[in-house]
Protein backbone atom coordinates (compact mmCIF):
# COMPACT_ATOMS: atom_id res chain seq x y z
CA UNK A 1 0.00 0.00 0.00
CA UNK A 2 1.55 3.36 -1.01
CA UNK A 3 2.57 5.43 2.02
CA UNK A 4 2.44 2.44 4.40
CA UNK A 5 5.71 0.60 4.05
CA UNK A 6 9.20 0.48 5.52
CA UNK A 7 9.59 2.53 8.70
CA UNK A 8 5.88 3.38 8.90
CA UNK A 9 4.86 -0.30 9.06
CA UNK A 10 7.39 -1.08 11.82
CA UNK A 11 6.45 1.95 13.90
CA UNK A 12 2.72 1.30 13.51
CA UNK A 13 2.97 -2.37 14.46
CA UNK A 14 5.28 -1.56 17.38
CA UNK A 15 2.66 0.81 18.82
CA UNK A 16 -0.13 -1.68 17.99
CA UNK A 17 1.60 -4.53 19.83
CA UNK A 18 2.27 -2.44 22.95
CA UNK A 19 -1.31 -1.12 22.97
CA UNK A 20 -2.83 -4.61 22.69
CA UNK A 21 -0.58 -5.90 25.44
CA UNK A 22 -1.61 -3.04 27.72
CA UNK A 23 -5.31 -3.60 27.00
CA UNK A 24 -4.95 -7.33 27.66
CA UNK A 25 -3.30 -6.55 31.02
CA UNK A 26 -5.87 -4.00 32.18
CA UNK A 27 -9.05 -5.94 31.31
CA UNK A 28 -8.02 -8.92 33.39
CA UNK A 29 -8.34 -9.29 37.15
CA UNK A 30 -5.16 -8.23 39.01
CA UNK A 31 -5.43 -11.26 41.29
CA UNK A 32 -5.55 -13.62 38.31
CA UNK A 33 -2.26 -12.45 36.80
CA UNK A 34 0.40 -15.15 37.02
CA UNK A 35 4.17 -14.92 36.81
CA UNK A 36 4.18 -16.49 33.34
CA UNK A 37 1.71 -13.87 32.08
CA UNK A 38 3.81 -11.06 33.54
CA UNK A 39 6.92 -12.50 31.91
CA UNK A 40 5.23 -12.84 28.49
CA UNK A 41 3.86 -9.31 28.73
CA UNK A 42 7.32 -7.96 29.58
CA UNK A 43 8.80 -9.72 26.55
CA UNK A 44 5.99 -8.34 24.36
CA UNK A 45 6.60 -4.79 25.62
CA UNK A 46 10.34 -5.10 24.93
CA UNK A 47 9.94 -6.40 21.39
CA UNK A 48 7.16 -3.90 20.66
CA UNK A 49 9.39 -1.02 21.71
CA UNK A 50 12.32 -2.46 19.74
CA UNK A 51 10.12 -2.63 16.64
CA UNK A 52 9.01 0.97 17.20
CA UNK A 53 12.61 2.17 17.70
CA UNK A 54 13.71 0.32 14.56
CA UNK A 55 10.99 2.15 12.66
CA UNK A 56 12.22 5.49 14.03
CA UNK A 57 15.80 4.73 12.96
CA UNK A 58 14.69 3.76 9.46
CA UNK A 59 12.51 6.86 9.25
CA UNK A 60 15.56 8.96 10.06
CA UNK A 61 17.49 7.32 7.25
CA UNK A 62 14.61 7.74 4.81
CA UNK A 63 14.26 11.40 5.76
CA UNK A 64 17.95 12.09 5.25
CA UNK A 65 17.50 13.12 1.62
CA UNK A 66 19.91 15.61 0.17
CA UNK A 67 17.77 18.14 -1.65
CA UNK A 68 19.24 20.56 -4.17
CA UNK A 69 16.99 23.27 -5.49
CA UNK A 70 16.97 24.03 -9.19
CA UNK A 71 14.96 26.36 -11.34
CA UNK A 72 12.75 23.68 -12.86
CA UNK A 73 13.60 20.51 -10.94
CA UNK A 74 15.10 19.17 -7.74
CA UNK A 75 17.23 16.19 -6.85
CA UNK A 76 17.19 13.83 -3.92
CA UNK A 77 19.78 11.26 -2.95
CA UNK A 78 18.02 8.01 -2.07
CA UNK A 79 19.13 4.44 -1.46
CA UNK A 80 17.80 1.22 -2.90
CA UNK A 81 17.50 -2.07 -1.02
CA UNK A 82 20.89 -3.08 -2.44
CA UNK A 83 22.48 -0.03 -0.74
CA UNK A 84 23.27 1.53 -4.12
CA UNK A 85 22.97 5.29 -4.03
CA UNK A 86 20.37 6.50 -6.52
CA UNK A 87 19.51 9.98 -7.67
CA UNK A 88 15.94 11.15 -7.95
CA UNK A 89 15.07 14.03 -10.25
CA UNK A 90 11.53 15.39 -10.53
CA UNK A 91 10.08 18.19 -12.61
CA UNK A 92 8.66 21.16 -10.72
CA UNK A 93 5.49 20.79 -12.81
CA UNK A 94 4.55 17.79 -10.66
CA UNK A 95 2.82 18.14 -7.30
CA UNK A 96 4.47 16.88 -4.13
CA UNK A 97 1.85 14.13 -3.83
CA UNK A 98 2.53 13.01 -7.40
CA UNK A 99 6.30 12.99 -6.81
CA UNK A 100 5.87 10.86 -3.68
CA UNK A 101 3.75 8.38 -5.63
CA UNK A 102 6.26 8.21 -8.49
CA UNK A 103 9.07 7.73 -5.98
CA UNK A 104 7.20 4.80 -4.44
CA UNK A 105 6.53 3.31 -7.89
CA UNK A 106 10.14 3.62 -9.06
CA UNK A 107 11.78 2.55 -5.80
CA UNK A 108 9.47 -0.45 -5.44
CA UNK A 109 10.05 -1.64 -9.00
CA UNK A 110 13.82 -1.25 -8.65
CA UNK A 111 13.83 -3.03 -5.29
CA UNK A 112 11.66 -5.99 -6.31
CA UNK A 113 12.70 -6.59 -9.94
CA UNK A 114 15.95 -6.61 -11.98
CA UNK A 115 15.27 -2.97 -12.97
CA UNK A 116 17.99 -0.44 -12.11
CA UNK A 117 16.68 2.80 -13.68
CA UNK A 118 13.19 4.28 -14.05
CA UNK A 119 12.20 7.35 -16.03
CA UNK A 120 8.87 8.98 -16.80
CA UNK A 121 9.01 10.99 -20.03
CA UNK A 122 6.45 13.16 -21.80
CA UNK A 123 5.84 14.79 -25.15
CA UNK A 124 3.19 17.42 -25.70
CA UNK A 125 1.90 19.43 -28.64
CA UNK A 126 1.55 23.16 -28.14
CA UNK A 127 0.77 26.18 -30.26
CA UNK A 128 4.48 26.90 -30.61
CA UNK A 129 5.26 23.29 -31.58
CA UNK A 130 5.99 20.05 -29.77
CA UNK A 131 8.06 19.66 -26.61
CA UNK A 132 9.69 16.72 -24.85
CA UNK A 133 10.82 16.41 -21.25
CA UNK A 134 11.75 14.01 -18.46
CA UNK A 135 9.18 14.35 -15.69
CA UNK A 136 10.79 11.96 -13.22
CA UNK A 137 13.81 9.69 -12.98
CA UNK A 138 15.34 7.43 -10.35
CA UNK A 139 18.75 5.86 -10.82
CA UNK A 140 22.40 6.69 -11.33
CA UNK A 141 22.28 8.85 -14.47
CA UNK A 142 25.14 10.69 -16.14
CA UNK A 143 23.73 11.98 -19.41
CA UNK A 144 25.92 14.12 -21.66
CA UNK A 145 23.37 14.51 -24.44
CA UNK A 146 22.45 17.93 -25.73
CA UNK A 147 18.89 19.22 -25.33
CA UNK A 148 18.18 18.52 -28.99
CA UNK A 149 19.49 14.95 -28.77
CA UNK A 150 17.45 14.38 -25.62
CA UNK A 151 14.28 15.65 -27.31
CA UNK A 152 14.86 13.38 -30.32
CA UNK A 153 15.36 10.34 -28.08
CA UNK A 154 12.21 11.09 -26.10
CA UNK A 155 10.15 11.62 -29.25
CA UNK A 156 11.39 8.31 -30.72
CA UNK A 157 10.65 6.53 -27.43
CA UNK A 158 7.10 7.86 -27.25
CA UNK A 159 6.48 6.92 -30.89
CA UNK A 160 7.69 3.36 -30.28
CA UNK A 161 5.51 2.66 -27.26
CA UNK A 162 2.38 4.32 -28.68
CA UNK A 163 2.71 2.30 -31.88
CA UNK A 164 2.75 -0.96 -29.90
CA UNK A 165 -0.57 -2.78 -29.52
CA UNK A 166 -0.29 -3.62 -25.83
CA UNK A 167 1.31 -0.41 -24.62
CA UNK A 168 4.45 -2.23 -23.46
CA UNK A 169 7.48 -3.08 -25.55
CA UNK A 170 11.11 -4.08 -25.14
CA UNK A 171 13.55 -2.26 -27.44
CA UNK A 172 17.15 -3.16 -28.34
CA UNK A 173 20.16 -1.22 -27.08
CA UNK A 174 20.47 0.36 -30.54
CA UNK A 175 17.08 2.08 -30.22
CA UNK A 176 17.15 5.81 -29.37
CA UNK A 177 15.28 5.05 -26.14
CA UNK A 178 18.35 3.21 -24.85
CA UNK A 179 20.31 6.46 -24.96
CA UNK A 180 18.26 7.65 -21.99
CA UNK A 181 19.85 4.87 -19.90
CA UNK A 182 23.58 4.57 -18.99
CA UNK A 183 25.56 2.20 -21.23
CA UNK A 184 25.98 -0.65 -18.74
CA UNK A 185 22.25 -0.77 -17.97
CA UNK A 186 20.92 -1.15 -21.51
CA UNK A 187 20.83 -4.94 -21.68
CA UNK A 188 17.09 -4.64 -21.27
CA UNK A 189 15.11 -1.47 -22.01
CA UNK A 190 11.37 -1.64 -21.36
CA UNK A 191 8.83 0.97 -22.41
CA UNK A 192 5.45 1.17 -20.68
CA UNK A 193 2.77 3.56 -21.92
CA UNK A 194 1.07 5.80 -19.34
CA UNK A 195 -2.24 7.06 -20.71
CA UNK A 196 -3.22 10.58 -19.70
CA UNK A 197 -6.38 12.61 -19.87
CA UNK A 198 -4.80 15.42 -21.87
CA UNK A 199 -4.99 14.72 -25.61
CA UNK A 200 -1.91 16.81 -26.29
CA UNK A 201 0.37 14.88 -23.93
CA UNK A 202 1.84 11.40 -24.22
CA UNK A 203 3.79 9.75 -21.41
CA UNK A 204 5.62 6.52 -20.80
CA UNK A 205 7.92 4.80 -18.33
CA UNK A 206 11.40 3.85 -19.49
CA UNK A 207 12.94 0.98 -17.51
CA UNK A 208 16.63 0.07 -17.72
CA UNK A 209 18.40 -3.05 -16.45
CA UNK A 210 21.82 -4.66 -16.58
CA UNK A 211 20.10 -8.05 -17.04
CA UNK A 212 18.35 -9.50 -20.06
CA UNK A 213 14.57 -9.52 -20.52
CA UNK A 214 14.12 -13.18 -19.32
CA UNK A 215 15.31 -12.03 -15.88
CA UNK A 216 11.97 -10.25 -15.49
CA UNK A 217 9.19 -12.58 -14.37
CA UNK A 218 5.85 -12.50 -16.16
CA UNK A 219 4.26 -10.98 -13.07
CA UNK A 220 6.92 -8.24 -13.04
CA UNK A 221 5.74 -7.07 -16.46
CA UNK A 222 2.07 -7.26 -15.44
CA UNK A 223 2.90 -5.31 -12.32
CA UNK A 224 4.56 -2.63 -14.44
CA UNK A 225 1.28 -2.19 -16.29
CA UNK A 226 -0.59 -1.85 -12.99
CA UNK A 227 1.93 0.71 -11.75
CA UNK A 228 1.43 2.71 -14.94
CA UNK A 229 -2.33 2.80 -14.28
CA UNK A 230 -1.66 3.94 -10.72
CA UNK A 231 0.66 6.68 -11.99
CA UNK A 232 -2.02 7.73 -14.45
CA UNK A 233 -4.55 8.19 -11.63
CA UNK A 234 -2.07 10.15 -9.53
CA UNK A 235 -1.29 12.57 -12.34
CA UNK A 236 -4.86 13.33 -13.35
Q: What is the element layout, followed by pairings?
A:
Elements: H1 7-27, H2 35-63, E1 67-69, E2 73-79, E3 85-91, H3 96-112, E4 117-126, E5 129-139, H4 147-163, E6 168-171, E7 188-194, E8 201-209, H5 218-235
Antiparallel strand pairs: 1-2, 2-3, 3-5, 4-5, 4-8, 6-7, 7-8
Helix pairs in contact: 1-2, 3-5
Q: Could you characterize the architecture of this molecule?
A:
The chain has 236 residues and is an alpha+beta fold. It is built from 5 helices and 8 strands. The protein has an 8-stranded antiparallel beta sheet, with helices on both faces. β7 (188-194) and β8 (201-209) form a beta hairpin. α1 (7-27) runs antiparallel to α2 and α3 (96-112) packs antiparallel against α5 (218-235). The two termini are 19 Å apart. Residues 64-83 have low confidence and may be disordered.
What is this entry, summarized?
This protein is of the alpha+beta class and 236 residues long.
CATH structural architecture of the largest domain: 2-Layer Sandwich
- Shape, per Cα inertia axes: elongated
Computed Rg: 23 Å
CATH class category label of the largest domain? Alpha Beta
Q: Could you tell me the number of beta strands?
A: 8
Secondary structure category: alpha+beta
Helix content: 40-55%
- The CATH superfamily name of the largest domain is GAF domain
Q: What is the number of helices?
A: 5
Distance between the termini: 19 Å
The CATH topology of the largest domain is given as Beta-Lactamase
